[in-house]
Protein: MarR family transcriptional regulator
Organism: Streptomyces agglomeratus
Amino acid sequence: MPPRTDPLTLEVVELIGEVVSRYHEEYDEAAAQHALTGAQARVLGLLSTEAMPMRRIAMKLKCEPSNITGIVDRLEARGLVARQPDPADRRVKLAAATEDGRRTAARLRESLDFAREPLGELSADERTALRDLLRRMLGN
């Protein structure tokens, strides 16, 4: 099936791009307030919910594992992340947010207004419909 290039589809694609761009811009600004890069903040956010190996972090963020190693090194040097053995496989190291890292990640999430404020203007039904459409677009 050829890609759709009708005006409505093109407008939707542009709007999605604008939302993503604004989100990344605000995320980077919020990260800078905590002396973090956007990439460091994203890794810390992931690790604040669960410990995981570098390879899985890289898969989730769609980047090279070698990049994640450097990011985790810098977060570890600041005391926000610690490496620990995987209880299921002692050969594997997990990266995990420290208590300070979890607090920093929570403050970072609280400071992100871009998505929260516009979404707050939508009704629960509209947010549910938007979520369901996004999931469908992503194949979830």
